[in-house]
Amino acid sequence: xxxxxxxxxxxxxxxxxxxxxxxxxxxxxxxxxxxxxxxxxxxxxxxxxxxxxxxxxxxxxxxxxxxxxxxxxxxxxxxxxxxxxxxxxxxxxxxxxxxxxxxxxxxxxxxxxxxxxxxxxxxxxxxxxxxxxxxxxxxxxxxxxxxxxxxxxxxxxxxxxxxxxxxxxxxxxxxxxxxxxxxxxxxxxxxxxxxxxxxxxxxxxxxxxxxxxxxxxxxxxxxxxxxxxxxxxxxxxxxxxxxxxxxxxxxxxxxxxxxxxxxxxxxxxxxxxxxxxxxxxxxxxxxxxxxxxxxxxxxxxxxxxxxxxxxxxxxxxxxxxxxxxxxxxxxxxxxxxxxxxxxxxxxxxxxxxxxxxxxxxxxxxxxxxxxxxxxxxxxxxxxxxxxxxxxxxxxxxxxxxxxxxxxxxxxxxxxxxxxxxxxxxxxxxxxxxxxxxxxxxxxxxxxxxxxxxxxxxxxxxxxxxxxxxxxxxxxxxxxxxxxxxxxxxxxxxxxxxxxxxxxxxxxxxxxxxxxxxxxxxxxxxxxxxxxxxxxxxxxxxxxxxxxxxxxxxxxxxxxxxxxxxxxxxxxxxxxxxxxxxxxxxx
Length: 586
Known about the structure:
The chain is of the alpha/beta class. The chain has two domains: about 1-315, ABC transporter type 1, transmembrane domain (ABC transporter transmembrane region fold), CATH 1.20.1560.10; about 335-585, Rossmann fold. The chain contains 21 helices and twelve strands. α6 (about 135-150) runs antiparallel to α7. The protein is elongated, with a radius of gyration of 35 Å. The model is unreliable at about 315-340 (pLDDT under 50).
């Protein structure tokens, strides 16, 4: 919670001025019943119309000045709330960007979206309402009680009894609501997750005719959320009727005792009206305070959820100490090759990896080295953990045991930015962003020239279709590349990686949408133009990797084959089965 509240510090002046102007407005509101006393007891009792009009003008003046103070307070409260929420949302987004793949897998994308949108908005509303009403409402409640004592001590004792009872009721209901609102937000996460799955997988759902099943699944989750919201709403709604009952009972007692005192001459009619006005003000302000407490309850629950995310360390900055396994055992580091002169480009030393929460190791005891300028093909059946192997090199995930060295240096000893400048990955699913072709390519190199862009496009076999687009490099790509085919998106993704001129290029099944001729042309262009680059190629096609310098065959998290195409056909049964099945299929 503290990590969220610190964002208000940048708006200290606004956070002080907003409640200050609200208190000034409240002060004028407390004066109104006293003016009414004068109108009734002096003006109306004596039939003095000019005096009544004069006091009416005073009431109008109090209202006008109070309105000015109220508008000013609203301005400062809104500025502080919106400004702090803007910075909070920006920092939360930046913090999430630093999460490792493992952390994102654990938290879930839908949860992150909820916390950046709905939760931050609730925090913003809570800050806004708190600055406007948190001091004003108690000020009027206690101010009205004190003013009542100046009018009549005996009648004011009713206020002394009612106010504590109302506070107990309000805060009992509020404290009970806090955990409930937290549950509501967690159920909202689930509904958002199902919605996101349905939107992103709409074509798959329709292809398998699962619309009705998905509707039922959404209906169940939405029903649970609705029922929980209804329950919390009913519980919170107790505030209004209970407080109204208490206040109206107090008004009955006040009118009864006040009427008796008027008959005996102890109180005037104007004083009784003023006491009723003060009791009504207390009623209104307690209702506002109750609603404020509900809003703050939601805001506190959401702020804690946001704070939980901000408290998560940025995993990819290094959760492990280089050369030390989680069990405390030591690994061999770069040794004499740490200068990188004689070291392999990439070396796996007894590497094992386990996904967070998984029982078994996904990768076990990998020992392999890739020389500089070498092309390594990786193939295996579905679920053989090919992608996981390559995700360890740029530290999308950290190894559980062993070590991975780049140019003789453990990747955990390198700054993440330095490592990612040297190792560039083209992921399985091509991801492009809304903007021009040039803007997407400059993700790889911010100051890339037009000549460099066309060279990268040429190697990636993308120059031909880009030249045919209107505007060429200035052609606008829609969100997620919706106006491009799967093959075009993959080729642009590869070009974006090539323009960075990395030392190590990882192609994680990133040519799966290309036809055989384009795939062959791409591999030829890479061999001719990227001779000093170490390239890892994951593919389901044996034809895509058969010309690699070496091929790694994966099976159940282990390397079961390591050699050239010809060697593996003779020595590796898994590779031979894959190759023969694809030849027969073709």
